[in-house]
Structure prediction request, 91 residues.
Amino acid sequence: MMTLDEAAEMQKLIDSGMAWRLEGAVGRAAYAAIEAGYCMLGPEAVKDYWGNIVPSRTDVEPGTVGSQGYFEACWDELEYQATFEYDDEDD
Prediction:
C-alpha cells in the first residue's frame, strides 16, 4: 500500500516521463502503482529507456488500467474500504 505522498511523488515521475527513463526498479514500481490504481499513466505518450512507447492515459480504453477512469474507480474503492476500517476501529 502507498501513502498519498508516495503516490503523488510517483505520479510526478510518471507525468514527467522520468519513471520510464530511470533504472528498471523505478519503472516497475511505477507500473505496479498504475496497476494498483494509485497512479495513472501520464498525460502524453513517452518512450522508455529502450525506445518502447508508454501510452498516455487517453491512449488506453476508458476504464482500463492506466486510464483516469480506472484510477478514479480505484481511489473510490480505497476510500470506501478505509471508511469500513475506520468504522471498525470505533467498536
About this structure: The mean pLDDT is 88. The radius of gyration is 15 Å.
